[in-house]
Amino acid sequence: MFEARLVQGSLFKKVLDAIKDLVNEANWDCSATGLSMQAMDSAHVSLCFIDLNAEGFDPYRCDRNLTLGLNINNLSKIMKCAANDDVVTIRAEDNADAVNLIFESPNQEKVSEYSMMLMNIDSEHLGIPETEYSATIKMPSAELQRICRDLSQIGDSVTITCVKDSVRFSSSGELGSGNVSLRENTSVDKEDDEVSIDLHEACNLTFASRYLNFFTKATPLSNTVKLSLKSDVPLVVEYKVGDIGSIKLV
């Protein structure tokens, strides 16, 4: 038996909204420590990792390790039936062929139940190797989303250049070029507004605008985002999922 009750059900909706344009279907691994997912996008260009800790659910029960193969778009459609303040429970019996989703209004006057068929999905377990990154940037997530959206109007790729106390995002195309520079700023009143740069080595790396815009769909999950960069290593974009876990896009 697997059961995970999430009081902040809207968090799960935001997680699905963040990945549904990248990932078509994925295996969700349920264990005593929590709920996790890793999947490649359909073009096999990017990887998505999600970890949701058991402590973030109340209650959380997983009698034995279980894998739930789910179509992400269909799951997202069902989650749209939940109000933003609903409590969401995900439940599956051992060896079940379906997963049950229960949505409860805060006053429990309304309870909705949905069932979704499980899939058999072939997937291999991949991981992010432990890496000493050249630069790690923490910045407001809305700022990153705005920069990626704006520069995608200029060109098909965005170059991120990181030096001692600043980071520059630039793009060029047929209509011209554009760049946005952010200086390190850790003296702001709100921690969520700060730009911090942990630099071991200056770097200058280029990424596809299209995928950066896909990644920043996770912006509603967190006020801040962390970028980890190193030459010849995929960019890692990480968002916190409330207090219960994280999503990494590679």
UniProtKB/TrEMBL annotation:
Q: Name one GO cellular component term.
A: PCNA complex
Q: Which PROSITE patterns match?
A: PCNA_2 (PS00293)
InterPro entries from the xrefs? DNA_clamp_sf (IPR046938), Pr_cel_nuc_antig (IPR000730), Pr_cel_nuc_antig_C (IPR022649), Pr_cel_nuc_antig_CS (IPR022659), Pr_cel_nuc_antig_N (IPR022648)
Does the record bear DNA-binding in its keywords?
yes
Q: Which UniProt keywords apply?
A: DNA replication, DNA-binding, Nucleus
Mind telling me which SUPFAM superfamilies this protein's record contains? DNA clamp
Localization in the cell: Nucleus
User: Is Transport given among the entry's keywords?
Assistant: no
Q: Offer one example of a GO biological process linked to this entry.
A: translesion synthesis
**A Pfam family this chain is assigned to:** PCNA_N
Q: Name one GO molecular function term.
A: DNA binding
Chief place where the protein resides: nucleus
What this chain does, per the entry, is described as: This protein is an auxiliary protein of DNA polymerase delta and is involved in the control of eukaryotic DNA replication by increasing the polymerase's processivity during elongation of the leading strand.
Query: Record's family?
Result: Belongs to the PCNA family.
Q: What is this protein called?
A: DNA sliding clamp PCNA
Q: What organism is the protein native to?
A: Paramuricea clavata (Red gorgonian)
